[in-house]
């Protein structure tokens, strides 16, 4: 009996396809795919329906299906286009097969349902897997990218390193900050590390707690930690929260922090006086005349 | 009261979501940058408490519009273990998780109105308001 169902479907594929295309095109009018050109939409529909029939002929998932879904994923077509399309297809096919028979007993009815389901369901599964696999891949790539950016350490000068922090700090990132900080201090032989929090939007007790711990750990291995980039509003919220950041030096800007760091490592910035001397010489010679 | 919105707290990144929504609302209401930072920090503390101690819960925002003043009300609700001794958690430096213990007393200082309703074993509801100045 299942064979008979297959036969009906195959022999009347033109009618089914025509019907399906009508419904899908009709639904398109108030739909998500409106930004896609009519031509592309129609050709994709035709390709889609061919892929579906191919998989019925070969009784299994085909390479075409894989290629088709891969192409749609890359083009960024919504998954709902495919799932809606297949659901419509299932309904159209069942309706058609039923309409070919005047009398239907329950056994035959369940055979039809079973047959169509076993044909359409694997395709849906395959497509959903393909899409979600693609999303998972993107998310994991982004996570890696984010992790690489999360706690950079820049050795700017002998014995001085800077860690600029931008964005939200969560527990995972806080761990990375601590590890990178300590590794970097040892590796670059830093006497002073500047942690720049200009780009951190909110400093709550957890963030503060992690910074205090990191600074304490840096102190334990014999270096000094300076917290810089504390904006006025952040300073006020820290005071309101009652957080004690008195154990290590803090500065409002990276520039001031860097000057302090130079002082701590026994250095100062000197402006070269050459130009001034030249001007003085000219002035002096002018006065003589 | 003309709008309501709500953020579910299920994972750590939802704290950021709640904070961003709260900051947006605060900006719309015309809070200054310092008060925006205070509100964002308070939301962060409340949402983190939910995440740390209750696991899941939600943070709700309401605009309070009274005759003489306007403000943002933040309500943090969870069905976690509740707080056994409220006066203890309102002390600075008390923490069961090894933190700084400045969270709840800090939020009270950051905001203008602060109220805890809790029952041991029933969950916690914290209501807090900041008025626009």
Automatic annotation (TrEMBL), chain A:
Q: Where is the STAS domain?
A: 150-261
Per the record's keyword annotation, is tRNA-binding included, yes or no?
no
Q: Which PROSITE patterns does the record associate with it?
A: STAS (PS50801)
- UniProt keyword list: Phosphoprotein
What GO molecular function annotations does the UniProt record carry, in alphabetical order? heme binding; oxygen binding
Query: Phosphoprotein: present as a keyword of the record?
Result: yes
Q: Where are the transmembrane segments?
A: none
Pfam assignment, any one: STAS
Q: Which PANTHER family match?
A: RSBT ANTAGONIST PROTEIN RSBS-RELATED, RSBT CO-ANTAGONIST PROTEIN RSBRC
Put simply, this protein is called: RsbT co-antagonist protein RsbR
Source organism of this protein record: Streptohalobacillus salinus
- State the taxonomy lineage: Bacteria, Bacillati, Bacillota, Bacilli, Bacillales
TrEMBL record, chain B:
Q: Where does the Histidine kinase/HSP90-like ATPase domain lie?
A: 35-127
Q: Which organism is it from?
A: Streptohalobacillus salinus
**Superkingdom field:** Bacteria
Which residues belong to the signal peptide in this entry?
Answer: none
Gene3D superfamilies from the xrefs? Histidine kinase-like ATPase, C-terminal domain
List the Pfam families hit by this protein, alphabetically: HATPase_c (PF02518)
Q: Which CDD domains match?
A: HATPase_RsbT-like (cd16934)
Which named protein is this? Serine/threonine-protein kinase RsbT
Supply the InterPro entries for this chain. HATPase_C_sf, HATPase_dom
Q: Name one GO molecular function term.
A: kinase activity
- Keywords per UniProt: Kinase, Transferase
At the highest ranks, the source species' classification is:
Bacteria, Bacillati, Bacillota, Bacilli, Bacillales
């Amino acid at each position: 009996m299942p064979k008979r169902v297959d036969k009906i479907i195959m022999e009347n594929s033109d009618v089914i396809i025509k019907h399906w295309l009508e419904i899908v095109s009709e639904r398109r009018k108030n739909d998500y795919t409106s930004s896609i050109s009519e031509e592309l939409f129609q050709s994709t529909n035709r390709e889609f329906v061919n892929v579906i029939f191919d998989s019925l002929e070969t009784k299994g998932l085909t390479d075409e299906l894989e290629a088709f879904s891969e192409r749609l994923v890359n083009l960024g077509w919504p998954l709902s286009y495919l799932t809606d399309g297949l659901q419509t297809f299932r309904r159209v096919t069942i309706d058609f097969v039923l309409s070919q028979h005047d009398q239907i007993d329950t056994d035959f009815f369940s055979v039809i349902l079973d047959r169509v389901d076993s044909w359409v369901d694997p395709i849906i599964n395959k497509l959903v897997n393909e899409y979600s696999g693609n999303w998972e891949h993107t998310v994991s790539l982004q996570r890696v990218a984010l992790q690489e950016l999360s706690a950079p350490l820049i050795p700017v000068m002998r014995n001085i390193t800077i860690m600029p922090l931008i964005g939200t700090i969560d527990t995972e990132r806080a761990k990375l900050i601590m590890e990178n900080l300590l590794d970097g201090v040892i590796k670059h032989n830093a006497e002073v590390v500047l942690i720049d929090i200009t780009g951190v939007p909110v400093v709550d007790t957890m963030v503060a707690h992690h910074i205090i711990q990191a600074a304490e750990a840096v102190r334990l291995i014999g270096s000094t930690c300076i917290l810089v980039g504390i904006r006025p509003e952040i300073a006020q919220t820290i005071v309101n929260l009652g957080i004690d950041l008195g154990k290590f030096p803090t500065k409002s800007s990276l520039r001031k922090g860097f000057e302090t760091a130079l002082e701590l490592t026994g250095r100062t910035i000197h402006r070269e006086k050459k130009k001034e001397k030249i001007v003085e010489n000219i002035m002096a010679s002018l006065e003589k005349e | 009261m003309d709008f309501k919105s709500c953020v579910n707290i299920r994972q750590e990144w939802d704290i950021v979501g709640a904070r961003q929504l709260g900051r947006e609302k605060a900006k719309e209401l015309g809070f200054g940058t310092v008060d925006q930072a205070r509100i964002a920090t308070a939301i962060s503390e409340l949402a983190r408490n939910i995440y740390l101690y209750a696991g899941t819960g939600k943070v709700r925002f309401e605009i309070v519009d009274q005759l003489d003043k306007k403000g943002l009300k933040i309500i943090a609700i969870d069905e976690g273990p509740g707080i056994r001794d409220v006066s203890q958690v309102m002390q600075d430096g008390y923490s069961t998780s090894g933190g700084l213990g400045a969270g709840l007393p800090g939020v009270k200082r950051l905001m203008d109105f602060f109220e805890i309703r809790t029952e041991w074993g029933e969950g916690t509801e914290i209501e807090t308001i900041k008025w626009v100045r």
